[in-house]
């Protein structure tokens, strides 16, 4: 029974000319999950847990490997527009959303354009706003393996990290990472992984129930940006984890799931 | 045959220990001495005028950024000076890095001016720019190929399409295109394309009838690529000939074999990848999106499969880079985020130990004038190029040795090379218009290049 409730499958939804591949699992009120810059990492523990009560929908971003690149998508606003259309055409809005890193940035762009698309929004170490202190890690100046290492504080003692990437990436993983990184470059080479107008535009999302989650030792997006997001979205709540890097969902999985359940209800 | 002189114009006052540790890209410029740099840039311009005096047909320039490997960061500046101070030689730019220039219309104007000032001696060429160049100029590597294609079309149109006109493309937008400085040569200067054996580029060249100049690549894959060009040309309805191909060959000569070897070995620290590339670490050579999907797949295999065939000049990774990435992967497994440490002495030994193989494969030809000529004949018999570049003088080679090398080539090797070329019928693009040969009546194109001479 538990296995059935956490099973997942892929479906394809046509949005504009894009055959959007969506990983779908569980049942109940939908939760839109926007994945990070290295692509959808696979069905993780937190996905399985949430899918016991919720329908988890993980669209695989165009150009990140599984969904074909759409040539017209050239920046994060375009990406946000595509997903806005997906929500509308699938009658999903207003939906709960959680976005990770680059996916958090997409969610924020969507909220800035039209906050009524969302019921509640959780952002996990989102890119999109230039941190007031420190820089977003220039992962274009490293290969994917180094980027992976930088993403968690303690790879050796992060069980799910080991399951996913232990021993280094496989050729297929490496190839998929490079696809994802290439699309990241097309979307956000300059300004690097942020949009200067976003903190201003996000004011429109005041009052949207928003949870901002960050690891205090995040080496990819400095935790200082959490304050910027909180300032931009009136009423947003920030939680930070000690001894945690850029991937709270695998580094602090238990607390993370608990927090999400409380927030989304 | 068109014979040209080429050197990377290195900043040669940097220790090879530092190069081994950092690669050429990523070497801190705190080690740059502007006084020495100024002297070198002028020496290199003098060498180009010497090349003209010595009888070379052309002087080839290229461009790299953020590296001690090549001081020609803006080769159009050098070309502008040469346009004025030389009288006869062709000024051959292989090539302008189209995706990184940012403003192709301005590039069109710069090149027009060079062509006019030189009296129509300009040969232009285009490159995508090395991976590192994308960082140096902040050009988006994810759009590298698109930028290349669009900028190329725009430059050629700016030279040939009567203005004014309006341009609204994907990456470039001009509301008013009407350049008054237009090339002296009509419809525009010749275009040759240098490369490292990318099939996409070779096919593109064949479609545009542009000669393809292989940059000191291994002979076997070069012949394979010639055949890809031949087949693509046949689809366009023409037979290729020597005028469609060029080859850049490393050649070092001295009065004695020993001296020639001594000089040539230093080239291992200045060459762009002969046997043991030190150009840059892989994260800078392969920025995201820079490679095609197929090339990315090859990269993925090399980086993640311990049994994959590792390393080849220009085609893969330098051993130094492989070691670096391998160490990084070990670091990944250990969960540590550290920069790999390079054993400088061991790496230096490895570099020099690779030299015999580099010589055997003829990536570098060195010796006395007498001993190098038969080797050059072999290369010409295999590849049958109509353009032949003597690539000399890379690495920390003294000014005196550089000039000695040039004089011996020009006086003793070049005449023999011309004789061989005449014997083999190696006509240049100035003799036969590339793309003008009809296909044989059978419709089946004749072969170009052959590995058979290597067996003898």
Summary of the model, kept short:
The complex is a heterodimer of chains A (265) and B (456). Chain A is α/β, with parallel strands linked by helices and 265 residues long.
Describe the protein's architecture and organization.
The complex is a heterodimer of chains A (265) and B (456). With 265 residues, chain A is of the alpha/beta class. Chain A contains 11 helices and 8 strands. Chain A has helices at 2-5, 45-50, 76-89, 102-113, 144-151, 159-165, 171-188, 198-201, 224-232, 248-251, 253-264; strands at 8-15, 18-25, 30-34, 55-59, 95-100, 118-124, 210-215, 237-241. In chain A, strand 1 and strand 2 (18-25) form a beta hairpin. In chain A, helix 3 (76-89) packs across helix 4. The radius of gyration of chain A is 17 Å and the shape is globular. Residues 1-5 of chain A have low confidence and may be disordered. Chain B is an alpha/beta fold. Chain B is 46% helix and 12% strand. In chain B, helix 5 (104-117) packs across helix 7 (144-160). Chain B is globular. The two termini of chain B are 24 Å apart. Classes of the chains: A alpha/beta (265), B alpha/beta (456). The A-B interface holds A 140-143, 145-146, 148-150, 154-157, 165-175, 178-179, 181-186, 189-190, 219 and B 135, 138, 140-143, 282-284, 286-289, 291, 293, 296-297, 299-301, 303-305, 325, 328-329, 331-337.
- Number of helical segments of chain A? 11
Fraction in beta strands of chain B: 5-15%
Please give the order of strands in the largest beta sheet of chain A. Answer: 1-2-4-3-5-6-7-8
Mean residue pLDDT of chain A: 94
Which shape of chain A, going by the Cα principal axes?
Answer: globular
Determine Rg of chain B (CA atoms, Å): 21 Å
């Amino acid at each position: 029974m538990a296995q059935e409730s956490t099973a997942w499958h892929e479906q394809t939804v046509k949005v504009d000319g894009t055959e959007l591949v969506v990983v779908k699992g569980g049942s109940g009120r939908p939760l839109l999950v926007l994945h990070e810059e290295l692509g959808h990492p696979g069905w993780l523990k937190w996905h399985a847990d949430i899918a016991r009560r919720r329908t988890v929908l993980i669209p695989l971003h165009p150009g990140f490997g599984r969904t074909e690149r759409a040539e017209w998508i050239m920046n994060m606003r375009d990406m946000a527009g595509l997903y806005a259309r997906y929500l509308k055409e699938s009658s999903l809005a207003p939906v709960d959303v959680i976005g990770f890193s680059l996916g958090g940035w997409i969610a924020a762009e969507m909220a800035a354009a039209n906050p009524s698309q969302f019921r509640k929004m959780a952002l996990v170490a989102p890119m999109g706003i230039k941190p007031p202190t420190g820089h977003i890690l220039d992962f274009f100046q490293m290969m994917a393996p180094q980027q992976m290492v930088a993403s968690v504080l303690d790879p050796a003692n992060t069980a799910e990290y080991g399951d996913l990437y232990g021993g280094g990436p496989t050729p297929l993983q490496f190839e998929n990472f490079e696809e994802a990184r290439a699309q990241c470059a097309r979307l956000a080479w300059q300004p690097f992984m942020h949009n200067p107008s976003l903190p201003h535009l996000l004011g429109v999302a005041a009052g949207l129930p928003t949870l901002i989650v960050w690891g205090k030792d995040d080496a990819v997006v400095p935790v200082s940006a959490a304050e910027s997001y909180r300032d931009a979205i009136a009423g947003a709540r920030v939680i930070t984890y000690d001894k945690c890097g850029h991937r709270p969902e695998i580094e602090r999985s238990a607390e993370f799931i608990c927090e999400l359940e409380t927030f989304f209800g | 045959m068109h014979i040209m002189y080429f050197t990377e114009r290195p900043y040669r006052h940097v220790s090879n220990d530092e190069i081994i540790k950092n690669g050429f890209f990523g070497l801190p410029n705190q080690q740059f001495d502007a006084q020495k740099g100024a002297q070198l840039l002028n020496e290199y311009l003098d060498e180009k005028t010497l090349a003209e005096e010595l009888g070379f047909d052309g002087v080839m320039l290229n461009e790299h950024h953020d590296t001690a490997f090549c001081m020609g960061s803006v080769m159009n500046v050098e070309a502008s000076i040469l346009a004025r101070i030389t009288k006869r030689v062709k000024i051959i730019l292989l090539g302008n890095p189209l995706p990184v220039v940012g403003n192709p219309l301005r590039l069109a104007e710069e090149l027009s001016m060079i062509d006019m000032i030189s009296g129509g001696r300009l040969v232009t060429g285009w490159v995508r720019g090395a991976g590192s160049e994308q960082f140096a100029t902040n050009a988006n590597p994810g759009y590298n190929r698109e930028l290349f294609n669009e900028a190329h079309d725009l430059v050629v149109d700016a030279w040939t399409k009567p203005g004014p006109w309006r341009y609204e493309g994907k990456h470039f937008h001009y509301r008013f295109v009407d350049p008054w400085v237009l090339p002296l040569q009509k419809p525009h200067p010749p275009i040759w394309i240098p490369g490292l054996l990318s099939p996409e580029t070779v096919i593109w060249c064949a479609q545009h009838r542009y000669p393809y100049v292989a940059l000191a690549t291994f002979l076997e894959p070069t012949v394979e690529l010639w055949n890809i060009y031949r087949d693509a040309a046949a689809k366009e309805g023409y037979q290729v000939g020597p005028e469609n191909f060029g080859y850049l060959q490393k050649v070092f000569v001295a009065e004695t074999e020993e001296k020639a070897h001594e000089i040539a070995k230093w080239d291992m620290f200045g060459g762009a990848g002969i046997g043991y590339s030190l150009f840059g670490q892989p994260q800078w050579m392969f920025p995201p999106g820079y490679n095609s999907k197929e090339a990315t797949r090859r990269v993925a295999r090399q980086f993640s499969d311990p049994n994959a065939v590792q390393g080849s000049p220009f085609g893969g990774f330098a051993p130094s880079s492989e070691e670096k990435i391998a160490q990084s992967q070990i670091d990944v497994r250990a969960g540590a985020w550290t920069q790999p440490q390079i054993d400088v002495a061991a790496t230096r030994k490895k570099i020099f130990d690779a030299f015999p193989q580099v010589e055997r494969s003829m990536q570098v030809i060195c010796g006395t004038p007498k001993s190098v000529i038969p080797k050059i004949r072999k290369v010409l018999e295999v590849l049958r190029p109509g353009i032949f570049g003597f690539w000399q003088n890379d690495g920390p080679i003294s000014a005196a040795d550089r000039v000695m090398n040039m004089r011996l080539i020009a006086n003793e090797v070049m005449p023999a090379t011309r004789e061989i070329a005449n014997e083999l019928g190696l006509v240049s693009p100035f003799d036969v218009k590339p793309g003008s040969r009809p296909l044989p009546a059978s419709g089946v194109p004749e072969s170009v290049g052959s590995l058979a001479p290597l067996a003898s």
